[in-house]
TrEMBL record:
Protein name, as recorded: Thiol-disulfide isomerase or thioredoxin
Biased amino acid composition, Low complexity: 29-41
Stored SUPFAM superfamilies: Thioredoxin-like
Region (Disordered) location: 29-74
Main location per the UniProt record: other
One Gene Ontology term, aspect cellular component: cell envelope
Subcellular location: Cell envelope
Alphabetized UniProt keyword annotations: Cytochrome c-type biogenesis, Disulfide bond, Isomerase, Redox-active center, Signal-anchor, Transmembrane
Length: 217
């Protein structure tokens, strides 16, 4: 082999090696995809488009009550460290502290879920019947907060709502990946029941929930 040919081969080998090294480095620096460990980090609680200004109109239309303030105690251990936005006004809510010392019915839903839309009015009626001894708190599990507010306004449902696009509450409480789903929490923070099903009426909700919290049927 002539000298010029040998040098050409050497240069090509070096170029290929440098190319592979650069490719590996770029791969290491890139965020992991859906199957990677950062999948949840890549999700967001709400869309970039859902700014305070953009949400002002939908919030006024929904006219939701404020989310619960801090209760008594540290709250459910599984939810400690989770802070979410209250859909009514955008205020941050320390979820565990907000639920502390309260009997709570968490209703997990999304604006695009048909059975959720059918169930939400029943949840509102259940809250009306149950009174202040039980707190019904809905948890919207999609990034589109505007759509959630508009859906609640359309349904006329006025329940305190947390915006949880990353579904952190469901993950922390190990709720099956279905919607709607309801989690019943006792005042001491323990989980009384997880109900991965839909309810059509307030009577159905009472029949399923009240025995778990010691309330009359």
């Amino acid at each position: 082999m002539r000298s010029s040919t040998r040098w050409t081969v050497v240069v090509l080998v070096v170029v290929v090696a440098l190319g592979w090294a650069l490719f590996d480095q770029l791969g290491a620096d890139a965020p992991s995809g859906p199957s990677g460990s950062s999948q949840q980090d890549a999700a967001r609680d709400r869309r970039d488009a859902d700014t305070a200004e953009a949400l002002a109109g939908p919030r006024a239309r929904a006219d939701l009550p404020p989310c619960p303030g801090p209760g008594t105690g540290a709250g459910p251990a599984a939810l400690r460290g989770i802070t979410l936005e209250c859909a009514s006004d955008g205020a941050p809510v320390d979820v565990a502290k907000a639920l502390a010392g309260r009997t709570v019915v968490l209703n997990l839903w999304a604006y695009w879920c048909g059975p959720c839309a059918e169930e939400l009015p029943a949840m509102a009626e259940y809250q009306r019947r149950a009174g202040p001894g039980v707190t019904v708190l809905t948890v919207h599990q999609d990034e589109n907060e505007t759509a959630a507010l508009l859906r609640l306004a359309e349904l006329g449902v006025k329940l305190p709502t947390l915006q949880d696009g990353r579904r952190r509450i469901a993950a922390a409480l190990r709720v099956p990946n279905v919607m709607p789903a309801t989690v019943v929490l006792r005042a001491d923070g323990s989980v009384a029941d997880i109900l991965p099903r839909s309810f059509a009426t307030a009577d159905e909700i009472a029949a399923a929930v009240n025995p778990e919290i010691g309330a009359p049927g």
